[in-house]
Structures are given as C-alpha cells and as structure tokens.
Amino acid sequence: MNAMLSIAGLWKSFAGFVATRDVTFDLEAGELHAVIGPNGAGKTTFFNLITGHLRPDKGAVSFEGRSLIGLPPQKIVRLGIARSFQRINIYPRLTVFENVQVALIAHAGQQWNLFRPGRSLHREGTVELLELVGLAGEAAETAGELSYGKQKQLELAIALASQPRLLLLDEPTAGMSPQETAETIASVRDIAKARGLTLLFTEHDMAVVFGIAERISVLHHGEIIASGAPDAMRNDPEVRRVYLGEQGGHG
Amino acid sequence: MPQRRHLVASAIVVLLLALLALLPLAGSRYAVDLATEVLIYALFALSLNVIIGFTGNISFGHAAYFAIGGYACAILLTTYNWPLLFALPAAVVLAGLVAAVVGYFCVRLTQIYFAMLTLAFAMLVWGVAFKWKAVTGGDDGFTGIKLPAMLAHYIGFFYFTLAVVSVGTAALWVICHSAFGLTLVAVRENAVRAGFIGVDTRRMRWAAFTVAGTFGGLAGALFGMYHRGMYIENAFWTESANVLIMVLLGGIYSFVGPIFGAAALHLLQTFTNQYTPYWPTVLGLILLVIVMVLPEGLIGLAARLKARRGKP
Predict the structure, then answer these.
(1) What CATH number corresponds to the domain at position A250?
(2) Which residues does B contribute to its contact with A (CB < 8 Å)?
C-alpha cells in the first residue's frame, strides 16, 4: 500500500542553518503520528514545508500520489491537508462563529460570491464544529478576547472546517492548563477516530504524545533519528539521550 | 436581537433618504449643492474603504480612479457627444479596468510598499491628465461638460446624484456583506490563516482593488458633471489624501463609517473656508485627533460611548 503522505530527502536551511536535514518519512492513512523533539529541532519548519508555507531546498513531498512541491498553501488545503499553528493564528476581530464560518465558506469555494450574505451561510455546519470543540457557548464572542486555551480549540475547529483527510496540529496544547490539555487530548483523539482522520502532530507534553500517538518520530537537529511505536521510542537509548532525558529544558 | 437591529437600521436608512429627498423643498440652493457634494464624497470614501477596511491596506492613490471616471465621462459626453446612458457606464467600466491593471501589480505588495505603488500609479494618471492636453485640456482643465437638460438644473442633478449614490452604496453594501466581503475581512485579519483555509489572498485583494476603483470612478463621474469640469488637481495626491482622511475619520471597521467621515470632513472644510484661509491647519488638527484619540474614527467613538452608557 502506498503511503498517504510521502516525504523523501527533504532539506531546508536558513542562512546556513540546516533546519531540515535529509528527512524521509512516510505516513499511512488513518495513522495518529506524533513528531517530537527538543525546541529548535525543526518541527515547525517540517510542518511549514509540508503545507506550502515554506519551499524546500531539495526533496520530494507527495500527498496521495500528488507532488506538493511548489504549491501554495491554499492549493494544498484543497487537496485535503489542513493545519493548526503553534502560535495562535485566528481572526482576532471576528467572532468565534465567523472564524469557523469563513473557513466553511472558503471550503465550499464561495469566497467569490459577491451577492449572497456571508453571515447566512453554513450556520448549521459552524454550530456543529463549535460544539465539537466545546465552543458553542462562546460563538458570539470576539475571537481575540477568548482565553488562550479556547483560542487553540478555535484553531482546531477552523482546521476541521476544511474537511481534511490529513490534519497537522502544531503543538495543539501549548500554553494550555492541565485540565484543558486533558480535554483537548480526548477531543482530538475522538475527532480523529470519528472522522477517520490521519493525524500528524508535534507536541512538547509527553502525556499528550503518549495519550494520542500510535507512532512517534523523533526529530533532532532537523533529522529524524528514530521512528516507531510509543513503547519502542520510550525505551530507545538514543531518544532518551537527546530528548526524553532533557525534558523541561526550554531554549 | 439582530432582528430588531435590522429593523432600526432599515428605518434610519429610509428616514435619511426621505429627508434628503425633501431637502430641495427647503428652498436653499446652498444646502442642496452641499448635500450633492457630500453624497459624491460619501460614495468616493465608501469605495476606498473596500481597500482599507476590508483588506487592511492603505491606498494612497485612490484619486486616480476618481479622476479617470470623471475625465472619461466628461470627455465622452462632451467631445464625443455620447448620451449619458452610455457615457456614465463606460467611464465606470474604464475606471474599473484601469484599477484591475494597476491592482494586479499593487496587490503583490502590502503595507507601505503597497501604498507607495498606488501613489506611483496615481501620479502617472495625473501626468497623463496634465500632458495629454488635446484630450484632457491639461492644466486648464476639461470644462464645458455637456449635460442632458434634465440634469442641467441643480435640483435635477441633486436627485440624479441621490439615486446614483444610493444604488452605488447599496451595491457596495451587498458586496461588503457577501461571502466575498466576509472572506476579505478574514484576509485583512490574518492573511496567513486565510491562505491555510484555501483562500487565494492575493486574488481576493485584487478583486477588492478593482471593486474600489470601479465605484471610485462612479463618484468621479458624478463629481465632474456636478462641477461641469475636471481638473488635474482632482487626480493629484492631495485628493487621495483627502479621501483617505475621510475614511479614517469615519472609521474603517464599519461599513457606514466613511459616509460620516466624508460628511464631517467636507462640511467642516466648507464652513472653515468661510471664516479662515487656514483649512490645512484645521485638517492637520483633525488628523492629529484621529491618530491620537480616535483610531477607529467617529463610528468607533460612538461605539465606545454606547458601551460606556451601557455599564452602570
């Protein structure tokens, strides 16, 4: 069987600093896969390369057999890959409701409709998604005024609105309280399973990683140094040395 | 209660239109002329706000489309003897086409670079109006515009302006509140995120630029007919700055804001000029107040006052 997402020999450097070093990586459909690694290991760059935010220096990325190299983000989303961001990336002046509604409008290709009132579209779909991430009560609030954890949930709803087959989450629980983290883990896992999503996510919090992931890849200095089942990773001496042993070290 | 707000808003619009329609009965030509000017500027400012309020970029060259609409309508009516029914739409389409060409390049940039490029193109338009004397009249201006008899009288022209501006405003309202308009706001708020939900942000901004130029051209065509002439000053950057200040004064985050900004600034300018020759100084003070205390314009101020009154 062919991999859903297939990456081969991917390189990216910034002014001589190599952020992604010869990464080869396959993701099977339906997998819940975590990419872990210390700060600065190149996790976000890796996501940016997949989603078209950055262009790789070298290498191949293909999704369901189609090359993504050179495609802008808006084209890649339409192929079925959506993402959330490590740093909050919402529309702060719009309401929570509109944040999701716009994503549904764009997904339906209605952004070129100059006549139909935007606020009347996809109201049910928006409510559904907000309920899914537990934000139905905050629908009318200004998105920028939500708590950090809730803004993260909103990010998730926006990403889901694009009805992706592959969902990339960049540190979905960063900055959340322990309780919010626990809720998010549960909801992400349930949503992914219920919708048959393939999930690729980065995460700092090991509880989250082991709570969701079925497979883990470890990124270190831009290189994937190990890949396998959570238990195997937990016991891998190299992984323990570069990562699990140095937990809590930010910088 | 959005339903009730809808009703109140509709009632205000109807009342305002009725008051304007009755204005000529008051018998003051001065008031009617002033209202005509305010209506034209209101449409001009509304059109600019499609770029500013809805895409988050400042255009410093919006007078270009105003001037193209104005000159084109004037020239077609007078030099080529076209009937108004064809001259006006043709002028508006021309302004829109030029905006589409200019916008194609401008939307590749954002922020200050975008503003400077819009300014550069506007200066080109000014240069054409200045140098192409055979067609535009150069720095003598293009005068003696022929108008249909019905519009030659100031009251007839006022009603014509009221009708055209109302239709133009309604069209802009529909566009700004459409799926397109809501997506534009998302692009303004966060272009990166908008890209990741599948929106081609550059093309959206291009379309917005074209819409703005089209309606700016409509305002310009009315302006030229009203004054029976177009002058190169109408294409100059100071005119772009003037409409920009109207938009900022009214408030960029509200659809109706620019209407209030246009009315306030134009009336203030007219009255100030009656008493002192220091309008530029007053304008400077107004700008100062906008930047320091009214970043969201008069509409933002009204919203703040309402919020304060709402709290015990």
Answers:
(1) 3.40.50.300
(2) 174-175, 177-183, 185-186, 189-190, 192-201, 204, 207, 253
